[in-house]
Design a protein that fits this description.
The chain is an alpha+beta fold. The protein is 37% helix and 17% strand. A hairpin with a 4-residue loop joins strand 18 and strand 19. Bound molecules: N,N-dimethyl-L-histidine.
Length: 742
């Protein structure tokens, strides 16, 4: 922004100097020259005519990538929209050249004088600069027509031969237009990050032909094969790089190639070269001195190691040089050679058939073909016309003093689909990709419970080893009256993760005063079935199911309003949460149920390791099937190709964290595809699928207290021990209050 602002104003200063130009007064400094010269010879006018065409054409080429909507945007008061630049430069020729020196010339549209006069007071009022972005009309098509109209007249004027004075005006108009080209580029550079452009794979002819000059390393042109890929049309910006830095980009070894990480540490790299941290943020040493880092400008002066780490962080990669050249030739890329050389992931080596010349010139490129990486494109400092699309620049991976930047690429699958997950992809896909991409692979246990997984869990509950379901149900039965005695007439029972509502019946049987039941479960089918069955068996009960993820903030249905609320969360599912998740859940239930409420919650207790491990690794293999169903579900729903036999079920007791852990262990080195991504497993590598925390009465009471609940009663079974806690909101005692009221 700063550069844009400062250049915009320096342009205006320059233009101010031309402020004396009017219909009857040429530039004062140039007047004597005009006066000295007579009519120009045709050679000179031909040259001028050619130059006119080239300069005008370049302006349009710069604007070509812009869509009509892009052309109207005014990013700041000082920076005019692209459309305005295109029209204003044309208006300049019309006003100062054609209207005065082309007899009989009729202006294209008299209204344009107001719209496209920049600041010439002598020419009357004009559109305020800060409001140029409001000009939806004339539309860009009209502006193109305007340019063609004026171009036609200027070229006709040049054909007839012109005076020295007229020639100077044309040259002035062209210099003026070049200044606007620079402004146009700066405006264009603002605000937009890269967009990925897809290319199908197939054979591609890489390299230069003999038709025009090229270095030996660009030859011979040869066929190479490209897999489908997508490539960003723009370079990574400083703003994006700052996000990488803020996310610990320079401090996370997992993002870096090994040699790069060694350098990060030995050189204490924490930003691109020439960046300096000041009290006001990051600045960058430039040719113009120390300047605030412009977030919209492409990042430069980064090494290959940094570029590769950034790409890793951005879930992308660097393009190969063949991909780069293919996309550039297809016209998909912007910022090709005018900003920074772009790192590719290609090692600098000989093309097939390359022979260094036998004379001394043979030393030019070939002998450097080791330990270097290819960069493509060109830089702001590269002389005009020096670079070309086949040009192979090369540097060592640690070098970063040159103008080197980053363009990202990604793989596309064979059907040309992006590997990038979109909003259309499910949470499941997003969580699977994140979990399998982590250094320690993990998946959230909530995804166990599709229809097949829910059935498998029922099967687990029937195994002799898995005691929690059996013991908890027995405990509920044994103490049902005690547990429910305080529930007042007309209360509502709200069950979280109600499933088949089996344990609910124990409560409902013992407490006929419960008037309404709100089962909450994400599985609509299971919920509907269970709700229907409960309605049938308890005809007086108002059943109002809520089909939602009970870990989300839910709203209770009208059936629950005005009733004392009794929460029910059996099964020790609280043990499957992290501590943070458990606290979040308990707090949100506290809020949902209100002050005058109770939460009945089941929790498995810490016990001997053998009992615990057996419960999660039953002999019959039900738990192993349940665990592997997660992979089967990925195969079913996310196009995965997991081989279930290539993984072993593992259940271990983590005494330090008081939890049973379930893992799936890869039997071999293997590659697995799922959710448009590819994941590598090493032999013996674990995928952590579930934690099942076990509690003591103290650890559970502490957890509850942190969430605003206190344990008012607890019932504990004989071994294997399991507990049911009755929690009441801290600093309130609802049932006692009620009892007294009753
Ligand atoms: C649902 N949840 C409480 C069970 C548990 O014990 O953690 C899930 C389970 N995992 C393996 N077996 C059962």
């Amino acid at each position: 922004m700063q550069r844009l602002g400062s250049n915009a104003s320096s342009f205006n200063n320059a233009d101010d100097r031309k402020g004396t130009v009017s219909s009857d007064a040429a530039l004062p400094g140039a007047r004597t020259n005009f006066a000295r010269r007579g009519l120009r010879a045709s050679d000179a006018t031909n040259e001028l005519s050619d130059r006119y065409v080239r300069v005008r054409h370049r302006t349009e080429a710069l604007a070509k990538p812009l869509r009509p909507e892009d052309m109207v945007v005014q990013s700041m008061p000082d920076a005019s929209p692209a459309k305005w630049h295109l029209a204003h430069t044309t208006w300049f020729f019309e006003t100062f050249l054609l209207s005065i020196h082309s007899p009989g010339y009729r202006v294209f549209d008299p209204g344009y004088s107001y719209l496209f006069n920049s600041y010439y007071e002598a020419l009357g009022p004009r559109q305020p600069r800060a409001q140029r972005g409001l000009l939806t009309r004339p539309c860009s098509i009209d502006i193109v027509a305007y340019r063609r109209y004026v171009d036609g007249h200027v070229r006709k004027l040049l054909q007839y031969g012109i005076s020295a004075e007229t020639e100077d005006l044309v040259r002035l108009g062209l210099a003026h237009e070049e200044q606007h080209q620079e402004l146009l580029l700066m405006v264009d550079a603002v605000g937009r990050g890269g967009r990925f452009k897809g290319m199908s794979g197939g054979p591609f002819e890489l390299g230069a032909t003999a038709a025009s000059f090229a270095f030996d390393n660009e030859c011979p042109r040869h066929t190479t094969w490209l897999q489908p890929f997508e490539i960003s049309d723009r370079l990574v910006t400083n703003g994006e790089w700052l996000a990488f830095m803020a996310d610990g980009g320079y401090a996370r070894p997992e993002l870096w190639l090994s040699d790069g990480w060694t350098l990060v540490q030995s050189e204490a790299w924490n930003s691109p070269l020439y960046w300096v941290q000041t009290p006001d943020g990051w600045s960058q040493m430039t040719f113009r001195g120390l300047r605030t880092v412009e977030t919209d400008a492409p990042v430069t002066h980064v090494s290959y190691y940094e570029a590769a780490a950034y790409a890793h962080w951005a879930s992308a990669r660097l393009p190969t040089e063949a991909e780069w050249e293919c996309a550039a030739r297809a016209g998909l890329l912007e910022q090709v050679e005018e900003v920074a050389w772009q790192w590719t992931q290609s090692a600098y080596s000989a093309y097939p058939g390359f022979r260094p010349a036998e004379n001394a010139a043979g030393e030019y490129n070939g002998k450097f073909m080791v330990g270097q990486v290819v960069l493509r494109g060109g830089a702001s400092v590269t002389p005009a016309h020096h670079s070309r699309l086949t040009y192979r620049n090369f540097y060592r991976p640690e070098q970063r003093w040159m103008f080197s930047g980053v363009r990202l690429a990604r793989d596309l699958n064979q059907s040309g689909e992006s590997s990038e997950l979109t909003a259309a992809d499910s949470d499941f896909a997003v969580d699977v990709v994140a979990g399998l991409s982590a250094r320690e692979k993990t998946l959230p246990p909530k995804y166990f419970y599709d229809a097949a997984g829910s059935e498998l869990f029922e099967a687990i509950s029937r195994t002799p080893e898995y005691y929690p379901t059996r013991v908890e149900t027995a405990l509920l039965r044994q103490f049902a009256l005690e547990i429910t005695v305080g529930i007042p007439e007309g209360a509502v029972l709200v069950e979280f993760g109600s499933g088949a509502s089996d344990k609910t019946r124990v409560i409902l049987d013992a407490a006929p005063q419960i008037a309404a039941y709100v089962p909450v479960d994400i599985s609509e089918d299971a919920l509907a079935k269970a709700a229907a069955a409960v309605s049938r068996d308890y005809p007086k009960l108002l059943v109002a199911p809520v089909a939602e993820d009970f870990t989300d903030a839910i709203r209770l249905p009208a059936a629950a309003h005005g009733r004392v609320k009794v929460g029910f969360f059996p099964g020790s599912t609280i043990g499957n949460f992290t501590e943070a998740e458990a606290l979040r859940f308990l707090r949100s239930v506290r809020q949902l149920l209100g002050d005058n409420s109770v939460l009945l919650i089941g929790a498995d207790l810490v016990k001997d390791e053998a009992t615990l491990v057996a419960a999660y690794d039953d002999v019959e293999g039900a738990t192993a099937r349940f665990n592997k169903n997660l992979l089967a579900r990925i195969n079913r729903e996310l196009g995965g190709d997991f081989d279930l036999d290539a993984f072993d079920h593992l259940a271990i007791w983590n005494a330090e964290l008081a939890r049973m852990e379930m893992h799936l262990v890869s039997r071999a080195d293997q590659i697995v595809n799922a959710a448009k991504h590819t994941f590598a497993f090493k032999a013996g590598e674990r995928l952590h699928t579930e934690n099942s925390h076990k509690f003591t009465t103290k650890s559970f009471a502490d957890l509850a207290a942190q969430a605003g609940w206190s344990v008012s009663r607890e019932w504990i079974s004989g071994a294997p021990q399991f507990a049911i806690f009755s929690l009441t909101p801290e600093s309130s005692d609802p049932f006692h209050l009620n009892r007294r009221n009753n």
